[in-house]
Amino acid sequence: MRVISALSAAVVLTGLVAAPAAAESHTSVLRASWAYTDVLAPDRSFAGEPGDMPVGAWRDDRGQVHSSKAYFTFDLPGPGSLTNCVSEYLDWDAKEVLGAALAAGESKVTLALRMSGANQFAAEFGRRYRNDLTISVSHNRKPEAPTGLLMDSSACTENPRYTRSTAPMLEATPTDPDKDTMTVRFAVWDVADPSTRKEVTASYAGSGLPARAVLHEGFLVHGREYAWTATAHDDEFGSAPSRTCRFVTDYVRPANAPKVSSTGYPENAGPPGHGGPDVPGKFTFSAAGDQDVAGFYYGGSEPVHFVAADRPGGTATVDWAPGYTGRLELTVVAADRAHLTSPSTTYRSWVAYP
């Protein structure tokens, strides 16, 4: 006989113990007193009798048929110890019994075991229950909404971030008050078409530990804005969704190499040259009409330094000093918001000897 409560509660007869969910809290309360009645002795209650308790029809040593009900009384724990069980999640018919008893400040509750009326006097349905009836109370709380949202190791920002990844890795940190192992579900959809919603999951996620899943190739399309959230799920409950993250896909590189100019080191100058080693000059980079350009990478041999453009498709000016004399070469590429880069421009000049 199993009765399920709010998060999970049961009245359990010997040998019929309900298994609690993993990592849930569990409390057992043994009956404090017991009694049974006999239809042949309507004015008497058989309280505290040793042995098993009769329920339904049974025959005594003389063959006479009796019919009995068994009653078990429990000492209720204080309200604080059952707070997590007697709650809005109770969904079985014992809710009214236990809830009313606690609300009324009762210290005991009595439950009756009886045979249905149609079988009350049918000896073949009679049985005995071992006299150690127990209320077993267990609870399982909902996971919290995941936090620590990352995409390809970068945190969500207020404005959509741009990505060149066709299979980004999503990350979220779930938390469960019962320390259950969880599954984290990542939902991703096109902002303009929510029907495209797709889910990927991370299994066996530990409470307080990052969970990761990869959005598979083929789902994302160039130039679209997407949103995603994460939810955490234990064996019974799912959390509220996390905050919503957004990103824009960009899989097309800037087409044009940037234009470069300098006042300190004129283009294609030869000896005796200009400036000198460690003498900075001003270099201006232009997007060459490409409105997708957000900045520029530049460097002497490899373009490793980044500077943002003053506006989409705009320009940027840097102070850069060659560390040598002789031929100057500065390599520059334009970059879009996903940091995809254009063909390169190599700017040449001549560094004067000191």
Describe the protein in words.
The protein folds into 3 domains: 8-139, no CATH class; 144-249, Immunoglobulins (Immunoglobulin-like); 259-351, Immunoglobulin-like, CATH 2.60.40. The protein has one helix at 95-103, and strands at residues 8-12, 25-30, 33-38, 45-47, 53-59, 65-75, 108-113, 127-129, 134-139, 144-151, 154-155, 161-163, 169-175, 182-190, 193-205, 211-214, 225-233, 245-249, 259-262, 281-286, 293-299, 305-308, 315-320, 326-336, 345-351. It is mainly β. Strand 3 (33-38) and strand 4 form a beta hairpin. Strands 3, 4, 5, 6, 7 and 8 form a 6-stranded antiparallel sheet that branches. A 5-stranded mixed sheet has the order 12-18-17-14-15, with no helix packed on it. A 4-stranded antiparallel sheet has the order 11-10-13-16, with no helix packed on it.
Keyword list:
mainly beta; Immunoglobulin-like; 3 domains; 6-stranded antiparallel beta sheet; 5-stranded mixed beta sheet; 1 helix; rod-shaped
Outline of the structure:
With 354 residues, the protein is mainly beta. It is 3% helix and 45% strand.
Major sheet, described briefly?
6 strands, antiparallel
Question: What is the H/E string?
Answer: EEEEEEHEEEEEEEEEEEEEEEEEEE
Question: In percent, how helical is the residue content?
Answer: under 10%
Beta-strand proportion: 35-45%
Mean pLDDT across all amino acids: 86
**Number of E-state strands:** 25
Number of helices: 1
Distance between the termini: 97 Å
Give Rg in angstroms.
38 Å
Secondary-structure-based class equals mainly beta
Which regions contain 5 or more consecutive residues with pLDDT less than 50? 1-23, 79-92
Give the tally of structural domains: 3
Backbone shape: rod-shaped
Oligomer: single chain
